[in-house]
Amino acid sequence: MPAPLMAVPPEAxxxxxxxxxxxxxxxxxxLPEIFDQLDREMVGLAPIKQRLREIAALLLVDxxxxxxxxxxxxxxxxxxxxxxxxxxxxxLALKMAAILHRLGYVRRGHLVTVTRDxxxxxxxxxxxxxxxxxxxxAAGGVLFIDEAYYLYRPENERDYGQESIEILLQVMENQRxxxxxxxxxxxxxxxxxxxxxxxxxxxxxxxxDFPDYGGEELLEIGERQLExxxxxxxxxxxxxxxxxxxxxxxxPHFANGRSxxxxxxxxxxxxxxxxxxxxxxxxxVDDLTVIEAEDILASxxxxxxxxxxxxxxDTPAGKEAP
Length: 322
Prior knowledge:
Blueprint: H1 22-29, H2 31-41, H3 46-67, E1 79-83, H4 89-102, E2 111-114, H5 116-119, H6 127-138, E3 142-146, H7 161-174, E4 180-185, H8 187-196, H9 198-203, E5 206-210, H10 215-228, E6 232-233, H11 235-249, H12 257-277, H13 285-289, E7 290-291, H14 293-297, H15 300-303
Parallel strand pairs: 1-4, 1-5, 2-3, 3-4, 6-7
Helix pairs in contact: 2-4, 6-7, 10-11, 10-12
């Protein structure tokens, strides 16, 4: 494991180095592997990926400054991730934990994901032990609090969320060199949460907004997800899925990449049913790996369309979920 970022460097006991090579430090840290993986696995999000690189650069420079004996205080790295479901917030939190660990900012580099129910108790004396236990598990890594605004419920005078908030604020200030807290949720609700809890706003240094994916990005996400499962679209199926994305984005409860994954799971289910019902001999590798247009056209997204608007289908539409 790399030495903690704030530890006294070996050079402090003797002469400082003549110079440092940040590029060499970057390569030695293993960060190029993490960023390459991030680019391969996550479509789009260029501004957010750039912000992660900037944070990595800050920590590299701080580590270099230590070698010259320059005073360094632990930077505040608590963050707010805002955006709709399925936009990559949890995945980016995992990458952030790995980056911080590679640079020695946190000891373990793990991610602990929680919601209000994991932090807030239901009776007097229950909240503090719950919150402290979560913080103990997260120490040395990153604590990701999803839908953080639910911690604060001003309409309920007997709510114990405020007790959890006070404990979190104290730890975020006093243990910021060994724990990074990421608060996540919808942008408008997070803004109201910060207005009601200014202590959180003052401790959060990085506010990062995750935009919804565009249609082409969602199609690419779908193709990548299929590839990881050793599936692929037929040319016609790809065109139909692009149409599916356009329609599904206009419906309620669309969750970006999460909805794409669910749609593909249902397409695989339909493909399996179609293959099982076949009675014309053995199946080839292509049979087992190709998602056909009919596997997507059976979605209720198309069944609910006006008759003249739906793409031509080879089989009748079923009544599966979108």
